[in-house]
Amino acid sequence: MGDTIAMTGPQDRESVLHAHDLVYVYPDGTPALNGVTLHIRRGEKVVLVGPNGAGKSTLILHLNGLLRPQEGRVWVDGQEVTEENLAAIRARVGIVFQNPDDQLFSSSVYDDVAFGPRYMGLDEEEVRARVREALAAVGLEGFEERVPYHLSGGEKKRVAIATVLSMRPSILVLDEPTAGLDPRTRRGLIDLLCRLPVTMLVATHDMRMAATLCQRTLLMDGGVIVADGPTEALLRDEVLLDRHGLESPWTPPPAPCTDVQKRVHS
To answer: Could you tell me the pTM of the whole model?
Structure first.
């Protein structure tokens, strides 16, 4: 059985990411992943939804080796994630964390976006080309000399995405990309993600974004993927979503408090 598993990822040329039967328990005994298997093909945009504590963020950290599973294996572009190839894997799996301040640490936008290509050992001319390309992709041309600390929340998110795009990853992984954004900035970011021609996995509680951005949805709860299917069909299944503590983006809004009070006192 082990030999069959080892060949699963490398054999499929369309596979960007393949994880098989991942198990992870935190040192305090808290179970996080309980046999997670997923497969993402080149060009797909996939959303990962689930209640708090479902294991979404823990799963993301396994995809480029920031956490290592106690059981199970991960392949990226057919290459298994091992200690020996972590640098190459982390260039291929670009993770954008929920808080952009976790990724922006330089005194200029240019240096933040250039950090990855420099770490890859690219010459400075190629680094400059990649910085220009990445900033253009997120609509921040001309921001090279800006100080990241002084940017708006939405601009920081875009720079964080650019720091990953500059390494030309095989898959872009985003953790709660719309968290903390006002409605206008949120819509702009969703439009940007829709336009980016890159394979994508997005973990989010933003069900409206999920319905807009991705054609395929993974529903995770209790450390396992409990549903995997077309986004519209899955997000319209109110019984399934309610069972796992979620709401459909098409569910009518609740009655205003004044209406509830009237019913209580009538």
So the answer is: 0.89
